[in-house]
Amino acid sequence: MDIEALRRDTPGTANRIHLNNAGAALLSRRTLDAMTGHLELEAAIGGYEAAGQERDRVDATYANIARLVGGRPDEVALFDNSTRAWNAAFYSMTFKPGDRILTGRAEYGSNVLAYLQVARRTGAEVVVVPNDASGQLDTAALANLIDDRTKLVGVSHVPTSGGLVNPAAEIGRITRAAGVPFLLDATQSVGQFPVDVAEIGCDMLTATGRKFLRGPRGTGFLWVRPEALDHLEPYVNEIAASTWDGDRGFTWHDGARRFETWEVSYASVLGLSAAVEQALEIGMDPIGQRAIELGTALRDRLDAVPGVTTYDLGREKCAIVTAKVDAMPAEDVAAALAARGINVTTTDPTQTQFDAEDRGVHPLVRLSPHYYNTEAEIDRAVEAFAELAGAR
Ligand SMILES: *Cc1c(COP(=O)(O)O)cnc(C)c1O
After folding, report:
1. What is the average per-residue pLDDT within 344-356?
2. Signal peptide: which range, if any (predicted)?
């Protein structure tokens, strides 16, 4: 990996030490050009005409995403974020009183809110699987909890609030053996390290463009295993989802496209496609290796600073690092880092309430390097923490 060349292709690296790739990564010049090029084309010849001219490149987006996650192009649907992609899968399932939805203690806030709404509406029950001693989802407990009532297992692969990597493939083995649908929220893992739907054995997977994939804001996708389509009735119908057969009714489109809406931002779609293509070219193996290496180095070095503690759970950890200066509120640390040109964010206890209950440590400072960050940038972040810890 030619880090210097990749950084020259990433305008933002000249301005900031960007350790907020779990929030939104920096766009590459290539992704930016794909988007601005399409906007220029729309302005020059018309929006419909531009989409027509770029039809092949738009279609290639599905093939690129399919290659990225190990599926087929017709198993992919595009959305404007990961939440809507997830909603398209989740709200297309049917639940009745007594049905159970199993999730984990690291589940994303919006997913939990959706479970709670559907539980309130249908009489289904939300059951939260405990963590094991390492802080990852306890797969033995999951296997014990699964029974006839279990209609869905929904898990976040990597949470928004820390470096935990949940044992997705082990969960997949359990759900497949039990014949229970497995909805994997892979928003923080896709683009960060290799994620393969066959290896994991999930039935539905959702991801966003802007985070570790380095795509534009306002993009996301859903992957659905073809067999799972039999159990999903898309929760909205519209002209992009089905064919209107006159008075005879309608027929859903083949594959995952039945979940899509007709109107999309083609500039954003082409930006997402360019970002995915670039990730594939660089290779998800080296990307994951370097991102996790930088995250691990950052975590280990922060831990070695007196007055600084890190809080990441799990047996397997990723590039997301959560930390605290012991005597300083996380928001103040984040602001002090911003003043030094270092982009980070803080975790929100209201959005990760299971984990907030378990540990009471949020808000934490969240630092999330990616492969295009440098060791020197990691040094700067550690030095800044050391200064802040010493200054108190
Ligand atoms: C960010 C995030 C989401 C939501 O993604 P959007 O693209 O903002 O809708 C879902 N799950 C996890 C784990 C996330 O970190």
Report:
1. 96
2. none
Task: Find the mean pLDDT for residues 228-247.
Answer: 94
CB of 107 within 6 A of ligand 1: the answer is no
Is the Cβ atom of 208 under 6 angstroms away from ligand 1? yes
Closest CA to 277 of 13, 127, 65, 97: 65
DSSP code for 54: T
CA of 244 from ligand 1 middle (Å) equals 33
CA–CA separation, 122 and 3 (whole Å) = 52
Q: Give the pLDDT band of residue 248 (cuts 50, 70, 90).
A: confident
CATH architecture of 29-281: 3-Layer(aba) Sandwich (3.40)
> Does ligand 1 have an atom closer than 6 angstroms to the CB of 82?
yes
Class (C level, CATH) for 3-26+283-391: alpha beta
Residue ranges of domains in the chain: 3-26+283-391, 29-281
Q: What is the share, in percent, of the chain residues with pLDDT greater than 90?
A: 98
CA distances from 117 to 50, 137, 187, 313 (A): 40, 23, 21, 28
Q: What is the pLDDT of residue 392?
A: 45
- Please work out whether the CB of residue 156 comes within 6 Å of at least one atom of ligand 1: yes
Residue 342: which of 314, 363, 323 has the closest Cα?
A: 323
Q: What confidence category does residue 391 fall into, taking pLDDT thresholds of 50, 70 and 90? A: low
